[in-house]
Specification:
The chain has 291 residues and is mostly helical. It is 37% helix and 8% strand. It is built from 9 helices and 6 strands. It is elongated. Bound molecules: zinc ion.
Length: 291
Protein backbone atom coordinates (compact mmCIF):
# COMPACT_ATOMS: atom_id res chain seq x y z
CA UNK A 1 0.00 0.00 0.00
CA UNK A 2 1.35 3.42 -0.96
CA UNK A 3 0.25 7.00 -0.52
CA UNK A 4 -2.30 8.20 -3.04
CA UNK A 5 -3.39 11.63 -4.20
CA UNK A 6 -6.89 11.81 -5.59
CA UNK A 7 -6.33 15.15 -7.24
CA UNK A 8 -9.15 17.56 -7.89
CA UNK A 9 -12.69 16.53 -7.13
CA UNK A 10 -14.64 15.83 -10.35
CA UNK A 11 -17.46 18.27 -10.95
CA UNK A 12 -19.75 15.27 -11.46
CA UNK A 13 -19.36 14.42 -7.78
CA UNK A 14 -20.15 17.99 -6.74
CA UNK A 15 -23.29 17.78 -8.82
CA UNK A 16 -24.25 14.38 -7.44
CA UNK A 17 -23.78 15.57 -3.88
CA UNK A 18 -25.76 18.76 -4.39
CA UNK A 19 -28.88 16.83 -5.34
CA UNK A 20 -28.50 13.44 -3.70
CA UNK A 21 -27.43 14.53 -0.23
CA UNK A 22 -30.57 16.57 0.33
CA UNK A 23 -32.69 13.65 -0.91
CA UNK A 24 -30.85 11.34 1.47
CA UNK A 25 -31.44 13.74 4.36
CA UNK A 26 -35.19 13.76 3.69
CA UNK A 27 -35.23 9.97 3.56
CA UNK A 28 -33.17 9.77 6.72
CA UNK A 29 -35.61 12.04 8.53
CA UNK A 30 -38.54 9.92 7.42
CA UNK A 31 -37.13 6.39 7.69
CA UNK A 32 -33.95 6.61 9.78
CA UNK A 33 -30.43 5.27 9.46
CA UNK A 34 -30.13 1.66 8.46
CA UNK A 35 -33.42 1.70 6.55
CA UNK A 36 -33.72 0.20 3.11
CA UNK A 37 -35.19 3.48 1.92
CA UNK A 38 -32.07 5.40 2.98
CA UNK A 39 -29.81 2.74 1.48
CA UNK A 40 -31.63 3.13 -1.84
CA UNK A 41 -30.67 6.82 -1.95
CA UNK A 42 -26.94 6.18 -1.48
CA UNK A 43 -26.13 5.92 -5.18
CA UNK A 44 -24.64 8.06 -7.92
CA UNK A 45 -21.12 8.32 -6.46
CA UNK A 46 -19.64 5.82 -8.92
CA UNK A 47 -20.41 7.29 -12.32
CA UNK A 48 -17.80 6.65 -15.03
CA UNK A 49 -16.35 10.15 -14.66
CA UNK A 50 -15.82 9.77 -10.93
CA UNK A 51 -14.54 6.22 -11.25
CA UNK A 52 -12.14 7.24 -14.04
CA UNK A 53 -10.65 9.99 -11.88
CA UNK A 54 -9.93 7.61 -9.01
CA UNK A 55 -8.67 4.86 -11.32
CA UNK A 56 -6.13 7.16 -12.96
CA UNK A 57 -5.13 8.92 -9.71
CA UNK A 58 -4.39 5.53 -8.16
CA UNK A 59 -2.36 4.46 -11.21
CA UNK A 60 -4.87 1.71 -12.02
CA UNK A 61 -4.15 -0.11 -8.77
CA UNK A 62 -6.27 -1.08 -5.80
CA UNK A 63 -5.81 1.42 -2.97
CA UNK A 64 -5.42 -1.40 -0.45
CA UNK A 65 -3.52 -4.31 -1.99
CA UNK A 66 -1.66 -2.37 -4.71
CA UNK A 67 -2.44 -4.94 -7.36
CA UNK A 68 -3.53 -3.82 -10.81
CA UNK A 69 -7.29 -4.07 -10.97
CA UNK A 70 -9.87 -4.72 -13.63
CA UNK A 71 -11.68 -1.45 -14.14
CA UNK A 72 -15.08 -2.91 -14.91
CA UNK A 73 -15.35 -5.37 -12.04
CA UNK A 74 -13.88 -3.12 -9.35
CA UNK A 75 -15.98 -0.88 -7.15
CA UNK A 76 -15.66 2.67 -5.95
CA UNK A 77 -15.25 2.09 -2.27
CA UNK A 78 -15.87 4.26 0.79
CA UNK A 79 -13.07 4.67 3.30
CA UNK A 80 -15.69 5.48 5.93
CA UNK A 81 -18.45 2.96 5.10
CA UNK A 82 -21.75 4.41 4.01
CA UNK A 83 -24.06 1.74 5.45
CA UNK A 84 -23.00 1.22 9.06
CA UNK A 85 -19.53 1.02 10.61
CA UNK A 86 -18.22 -2.15 12.24
CA UNK A 87 -16.22 -1.15 15.34
CA UNK A 88 -15.37 -4.67 16.49
CA UNK A 89 -12.25 -6.73 16.01
CA UNK A 90 -12.41 -9.36 13.31
CA UNK A 91 -13.98 -12.50 14.78
CA UNK A 92 -15.44 -10.65 17.78
CA UNK A 93 -19.19 -10.17 18.29
CA UNK A 94 -20.36 -7.47 15.86
CA UNK A 95 -20.61 -3.92 17.16
CA UNK A 96 -22.03 -1.85 14.35
CA UNK A 97 -22.80 1.87 14.44
CA UNK A 98 -25.74 1.67 12.08
CA UNK A 99 -25.96 5.44 11.70
CA UNK A 100 -22.51 5.91 10.20
CA UNK A 101 -21.50 7.36 7.62
CA UNK A 102 -24.27 7.68 5.02
CA UNK A 103 -23.82 11.46 4.63
CA UNK A 104 -20.22 10.94 3.39
CA UNK A 105 -21.40 8.88 0.40
CA UNK A 106 -20.52 11.71 -2.03
CA UNK A 107 -17.45 13.11 -0.24
CA UNK A 108 -14.38 13.04 -2.49
CA UNK A 109 -11.98 12.53 0.41
CA UNK A 110 -13.93 9.40 1.33
CA UNK A 111 -13.74 7.60 -2.03
CA UNK A 112 -11.19 5.02 -3.13
CA UNK A 113 -10.83 2.62 -6.02
CA UNK A 114 -10.47 -0.90 -4.66
CA UNK A 115 -10.48 -4.44 -6.00
CA UNK A 116 -13.36 -6.83 -5.30
CA UNK A 117 -11.20 -8.90 -2.93
CA UNK A 118 -10.31 -6.00 -0.67
CA UNK A 119 -13.83 -4.60 -0.67
CA UNK A 120 -15.76 -7.81 -0.07
CA UNK A 121 -17.44 -9.04 3.09
CA UNK A 122 -14.42 -11.06 4.15
CA UNK A 123 -12.08 -8.06 4.03
CA UNK A 124 -12.68 -4.31 4.34
CA UNK A 125 -16.46 -4.49 3.95
CA UNK A 126 -17.94 -2.16 6.60
CA UNK A 127 -15.11 -2.49 9.10
CA UNK A 128 -14.15 0.86 10.53
CA UNK A 129 -12.82 0.47 14.09
CA UNK A 130 -11.49 3.48 15.96
CA UNK A 131 -8.52 3.89 18.26
CA UNK A 132 -9.40 3.32 21.92
CA UNK A 133 -10.81 6.52 23.38
CA UNK A 134 -11.65 8.07 20.02
CA UNK A 135 -15.15 9.44 19.70
CA UNK A 136 -16.92 8.66 16.44
CA UNK A 137 -17.97 11.45 14.14
CA UNK A 138 -21.36 12.71 15.35
CA UNK A 139 -24.37 11.38 13.49
CA UNK A 140 -26.76 14.03 12.26
CA UNK A 141 -29.75 14.20 14.58
CA UNK A 142 -33.13 14.20 13.01
CA UNK A 143 -34.49 16.41 11.65
CA UNK A 144 -31.34 17.34 9.77
CA UNK A 145 -31.77 20.00 7.13
CA UNK A 146 -28.81 19.02 5.00
CA UNK A 147 -26.49 21.77 6.18
CA UNK A 148 -23.05 20.72 4.97
CA UNK A 149 -20.90 22.07 7.74
CA UNK A 150 -19.20 20.97 10.86
CA UNK A 151 -19.32 18.76 12.73
CA UNK A 152 -20.72 16.08 10.42
CA UNK A 153 -18.11 16.55 7.70
CA UNK A 154 -15.10 17.43 9.84
CA UNK A 155 -13.36 14.09 10.32
CA UNK A 156 -10.21 15.54 11.88
CA UNK A 157 -11.22 14.64 15.44
CA UNK A 158 -11.90 10.99 14.73
CA UNK A 159 -8.98 8.55 15.02
CA UNK A 160 -9.55 5.51 12.76
CA UNK A 161 -7.48 2.38 13.14
CA UNK A 162 -7.66 1.74 9.40
CA UNK A 163 -4.88 3.52 7.54
CA UNK A 164 -6.06 6.19 5.11
CA UNK A 165 -3.68 5.99 2.13
CA UNK A 166 -4.60 9.53 1.12
CA UNK A 167 -3.44 10.91 4.49
CA UNK A 168 -1.00 8.40 5.97
CA UNK A 169 2.15 6.96 4.45
CA UNK A 170 1.35 3.26 4.77
CA UNK A 171 5.07 2.46 5.03
CA UNK A 172 5.08 4.25 8.39
CA UNK A 173 2.69 1.55 9.61
CA UNK A 174 3.23 -1.64 7.61
CA UNK A 175 6.37 -3.36 6.34
CA UNK A 176 6.94 -6.76 4.76
CA UNK A 177 9.46 -9.01 6.46
CA UNK A 178 11.09 -12.22 5.20
CA UNK A 179 10.59 -15.57 6.85
CA UNK A 180 12.58 -18.78 6.45
CA UNK A 181 15.67 -16.90 5.32
CA UNK A 182 17.79 -20.05 5.69
CA UNK A 183 16.26 -21.15 2.38
CA UNK A 184 17.46 -20.00 -1.02
CA UNK A 185 16.41 -16.39 -1.48
CA UNK A 186 13.87 -17.16 -4.18
CA UNK A 187 12.10 -19.51 -1.74
CA UNK A 188 11.75 -17.03 1.10
CA UNK A 189 8.30 -16.43 2.49
CA UNK A 190 7.21 -12.87 3.26
CA UNK A 191 4.72 -11.55 5.76
CA UNK A 192 3.23 -8.12 6.47
CA UNK A 193 4.13 -6.74 9.88
CA UNK A 194 2.56 -3.83 11.77
CA UNK A 195 4.90 -1.09 12.97
CA UNK A 196 2.04 0.60 14.81
CA UNK A 197 -1.33 -0.47 16.23
CA UNK A 198 -2.93 1.09 13.14
CA UNK A 199 -0.68 -0.96 10.89
CA UNK A 200 -1.54 -4.14 12.76
CA UNK A 201 -5.26 -3.36 12.62
CA UNK A 202 -5.10 -2.60 8.90
CA UNK A 203 -3.31 -5.88 8.18
CA UNK A 204 -6.07 -7.73 10.08
CA UNK A 205 -8.98 -5.86 8.48
CA UNK A 206 -7.70 -6.30 4.93
CA UNK A 207 -6.13 -9.74 5.59
CA UNK A 208 -2.99 -8.53 3.87
CA UNK A 209 -1.17 -11.76 4.73
CA UNK A 210 -3.27 -13.35 1.97
CA UNK A 211 -1.15 -11.39 -0.50
CA UNK A 212 2.03 -13.28 0.43
CA UNK A 213 1.80 -15.71 -2.50
CA UNK A 214 1.31 -12.85 -4.94
CA UNK A 215 4.17 -10.90 -3.35
CA UNK A 216 6.56 -13.88 -3.45
CA UNK A 217 5.68 -14.60 -7.08
CA UNK A 218 6.25 -10.94 -7.99
CA UNK A 219 9.64 -10.92 -6.30
CA UNK A 220 10.72 -14.12 -8.05
CA UNK A 221 9.57 -13.04 -11.50
CA UNK A 222 9.88 -9.26 -11.64
CA UNK A 223 12.50 -8.29 -9.07
CA UNK A 224 14.98 -11.01 -8.19
CA UNK A 225 16.41 -11.58 -11.72
CA UNK A 226 17.31 -7.89 -11.95
CA UNK A 227 18.69 -7.95 -8.42
CA UNK A 228 20.96 -10.83 -9.38
CA UNK A 229 22.23 -8.86 -12.37
CA UNK A 230 23.15 -5.97 -10.07
CA UNK A 231 24.98 -8.36 -7.78
CA UNK A 232 26.79 -10.06 -10.67
CA UNK A 233 28.08 -6.71 -11.93
CA UNK A 234 29.17 -5.76 -8.41
CA UNK A 235 30.92 -9.10 -7.83
CA UNK A 236 32.89 -8.62 -11.05
CA UNK A 237 33.92 -5.11 -10.03
CA UNK A 238 31.72 -3.48 -12.69
CA UNK A 239 30.40 -0.84 -10.31
CA UNK A 240 29.15 1.54 -13.00
CA UNK A 241 27.12 -1.22 -14.61
CA UNK A 242 25.83 -2.31 -11.21
CA UNK A 243 24.70 1.24 -10.42
CA UNK A 244 23.01 1.61 -13.79
CA UNK A 245 21.18 -1.71 -13.45
CA UNK A 246 20.14 -0.76 -9.91
CA UNK A 247 18.63 2.49 -11.20
CA UNK A 248 16.64 0.61 -13.81
CA UNK A 249 15.44 -1.87 -11.22
CA UNK A 250 14.25 0.92 -8.95
CA UNK A 251 12.54 2.75 -11.81
CA UNK A 252 10.77 -0.40 -12.98
CA UNK A 253 9.58 -1.77 -9.66
CA UNK A 254 8.98 1.28 -7.44
CA UNK A 255 7.12 3.45 -9.95
CA UNK A 256 3.65 4.59 -8.85
CA UNK A 257 2.08 2.25 -11.39
CA UNK A 258 4.19 -0.78 -10.41
CA UNK A 259 2.24 -3.47 -8.57
CA UNK A 260 3.18 -4.16 -4.96
CA UNK A 261 5.63 -1.24 -4.92
CA UNK A 262 5.60 -0.84 -1.13
CA UNK A 263 6.27 -4.53 -0.54
CA UNK A 264 8.99 -4.49 -3.19
CA UNK A 265 10.64 -1.49 -1.49
CA UNK A 266 10.74 -3.53 1.73
CA UNK A 267 12.38 -6.46 -0.09
CA UNK A 268 15.00 -4.20 -1.68
CA UNK A 269 15.84 -2.79 1.76
CA UNK A 270 16.45 -6.34 2.97
CA UNK A 271 18.40 -7.54 -0.06
CA UNK A 272 20.44 -4.38 -0.55
CA UNK A 273 20.65 -2.65 2.84
CA UNK A 274 22.12 0.82 3.31
CA UNK A 275 25.58 -0.33 4.35
CA UNK A 276 25.92 -2.47 1.23
CA UNK A 277 24.53 0.23 -1.04
CA UNK A 278 27.08 2.65 0.32
CA UNK A 279 29.87 0.14 -0.20
CA UNK A 280 28.84 -0.39 -3.82
CA UNK A 281 27.99 3.22 -4.55
CA UNK A 282 24.30 2.50 -5.17
CA UNK A 283 21.59 5.08 -4.64
CA UNK A 284 19.03 4.94 -1.85
CA UNK A 285 15.64 4.00 -3.27
CA UNK A 286 13.00 6.56 -2.36
CA UNK A 287 9.84 5.27 -0.77
CA UNK A 288 7.32 4.58 -3.50
CA UNK A 289 4.38 6.96 -3.55
CA UNK A 290 1.44 7.58 -5.79
CA UNK A 291 1.00 11.08 -4.42
ZN1 LIG B 1 -7.16 -4.92 -3.44
Amino acid sequence: MIRIDRGQEPSALVTARSTRLSAAVKTYNRHGAGSRELSDTLVGYNTPTIKDALYLAQHKKCAWCELRVQYGSSPVEHYRPKAGAGRHDRGAPPQVDCGHYWWLTWTWANLLFACPRCNDQGHKANFFPLEPGSSPLPVPKRPHRGRRGNPFFDTSGERPLLIDPAIDDPLDHIVWKPLQTALARRDWKWSPSGLTPRGTATIAILKLAELADEMEHHLRIAVLPSMEEVEAHAAAGRNAEAAARWQTLIADTLAPSSPLAAATWCALEVWMPAVRRTHLGLSTPARPTGA
